[in-house]
Design a protein that fits this description.
The protein has helices spanning 15-25, 31-39, 63-71, 98-108, 125-133, 153-158, 169-172, and strands at residues 8-14, 28-29, 43-54, 75-85, 91-94, 114-118, 137-142, 161-164, 173-174. The chain is an alpha/beta fold and 186 residues long. It has a domain at 8-48 and 92-174: 3-Layer(aba) Sandwich (Rossmann fold). Strand 4 and strand 5 (91-94) form a beta hairpin.
């Protein structure tokens, strides 16, 4: 990872993608450690976490995480996921945050030097290219070491750098032990 002490950094986290990747790598992300790690790499301008929540769901299992993130240095961006029935009669949930992330990345590109994009989704290739045209470097944080790899080839080719998430386990991981987001000291 190449970082410069005075560079302005923005973090964009595709919540569902990072969650899936963490499960594949068999560790939970310690979001406090993640934030501290990148605060030490430059001037952290923002840390955005994007996720969709089921509509009409009074309690979501990820609500404690959303609350913890919101109170501990992250800007949490959510929207309601829609539940629908597909043509085969199966219940599906649709809640994609890609557009929100792309718009925010393009908006901030002129005031940051480096964007850290936590996703492996190839749909972000055009967004990376757009912010690179504005002079912003983009490092994608995902993994190629899982089976199947969580990082798309399109993203790997477009990014300025790839940060292998499996190698970051000792830096930002924590043992799987349930919900650690309601401790008083946090």
């Amino acid at each position: 990872m190449a970082f410069y002490p005075d560079e302005r950094i923005a973090i964009f986290i595709d919540g569902s993608n990072l969650h899936s990747t963490g499960k594949t790598l068999d560790y939970d992300i310690d979001y406090r450690k993640l934030l501290d790690l990148f605060r030490g790499k430059g001037r952290l301008i923002c840390a955005n976490y994007y996720t969709a929540l089921k509509e009409n769901d009074d309690y979501s299992p990820i609500r404690p995480l959303m609350d913890w993130l919101d109170y501990n240095g992250y800007h949490v961006i959510t929207k309601r996921a829609r539940e629908y029935t597909d043509r085969d009669g199966r219940r599906r949930i649709k809640g994609n945050m890609d557009i929100e992330m792309v718009v925010d990345m393009i908006d901030i590109a002129e005031v940051v030097d480096h964007i850290l994009l936590f996703t492996g989704d190839g749909d972000f290739r055009a967004a990376i290219k757009a912010v690179q045209r504005k002079g912003t470097r983009v490092s994608v944080v995902s993994t190629l070491k899982s089976k199947p790899p969580m990082l798309s080839d399109e993203l790997r080719r477009q990014a300025d750098a790839i940060i292998e998430l499996s190698d970051m386990g000792p830096l930002i991981g924590r043992p799987k032990s349930g919900n650690d987001y309601d401790h008083e000291d946090e």
